[in-house]
Design goal:
By secondary structure, the chain is mostly helical. Helix content is 49%, strand content 4%. It has 13 helices and five strands.
Length: 310
């Protein structure tokens, strides 16, 4: 019989859907729920569509396996399907009692729920509220020890590129010069959508067309030209692991939102602050500008962008 960790790895392998559309899968899931006459959960979907998410889920699932064998060494619990949800609840509660963040607890619960294909509530643990998470976010808002191992001067080209495009780390690592184009309006765009090989680099396989900050078009084109002149298949041969990509995506989001607001005003549109934050902060934003900013970042939920980028 395979070890518990091997059983987990094999099950995760069956869930991998890299490069496929999570959005389409959610639609199909909704259609099945409708046929069966059950309430649809728009967040539920069978597979794992992002390699980054898969790696994170795998880590927590294997952490649970180590804990399980230590706390419940009985032979029957060597079989994955025999593990009761109570054990997972016990593991989650132990993490909460040790003071881990609400974000981590929810992520651990999501990983195990995906592994066991159940609802996170099945573990009998009340998940920590997301309210107040924004106040606890430290990454990319303050200097941390990790930043000392990264030279801004030696990486200024890719930093400037990231500031005006907002690409994720995986997208930067696999970006080819041919993906930087001019559209029919003569605008600089980055194509992460037209080919499967482009979409697979994005989170969840949801391709998109990125519209860089207009003031930075020259930075994007210079990066493309430099790579082509050197005969490189990639725009950047190395993306430093210590580079705080999220902070540059956040800078992009702030500037993109302002740019969109300015364009809407130039078109004579009335700027309504019709999106109210649900975190109790009282912050308000224009919903259309938020949507465009969100699409450029590769997110579909406005609250995610407001909480993590603005």
């Amino acid at each position: 019989m395979a070890s518990l960790k091997m059983q987990i790895l094999k099950r995760i392998d069956t869930l991998k859907m890299f490069g496929q559309s999570k959005h389409k899968a959610k639609k199909q899931e909704g259609q099945v729920d409708k046929m069966l006459g059950i309430q649809n959960n728009p967040l539920r979907v069978y597979g794992i569509y992002s390699k980054t998410t898969c790696d994170t889920y795998k880590k927590y699932c294997l952490d649970f396996a180590t804990w399980e064998r230590q706390r419940h060494p009985e032979k029957e619990f060597k079989i994955l399907n025999n593990i009761p949800y109570d054990h997972i609840g016990e593991w989650l509660c132990e993490g909460i009692s040790k003071g881990e963040s609400g974000y981590t607890t929810r992520l651990k619960g999501a990983a195990l729920a995906k592994l066991f294909q159940c609802n996170i509530n099945a573990f009998g643990v009340k998940m920590p509220s997301k309210k107040g998470d924004r106040l606890k976010i430290k990454k990319s808002r303050n200097n941390v020890e990790f930043d000392k191992h990264f030279s801004v001067e030696n990486n200024k080209d890719i930093i400037n590129f990231c500031r005006v495009t907002g690409l994720r780390r995986s997208e930067l690592r696999q970006l080819s010069p041919g993906q930087i184009k001019l559209n029919s309006k003569g605008e600089v765009i980055i194509d992460l959508k037209s080919k499967k090989s482009y979409r697979i680099t994005t989170k969840g396989g949801r391709g998109r067309i990125v519209h860089p900050i207009k003031e930075g078009w020259n930075i994007v084109l210079e990066s493309k030209n430099r790579a082509e002149e050197l005969g490189q298949t990639l725009v950047f041969l190395k993306v430093h692991s210590a580079m705080d990509v999220h902070s540059y995506r956040r800078e992009f989001a702030l500037n993109k939102y302002k740019e969109v607001i300015k364009e809407l005003k130039n078109h004579g549109k009335d700027i309504k602050l019709d999106y109210i934050c649900r975190d109790g902060s009282g912050r308000r934003y224009n919903k259309e500008a938020l949507r465009i900013t969100s699409e450029n970042l590769g997110h579909s939920r406005l609250d995610v962008v407001v909480k993590n980028y603005l």
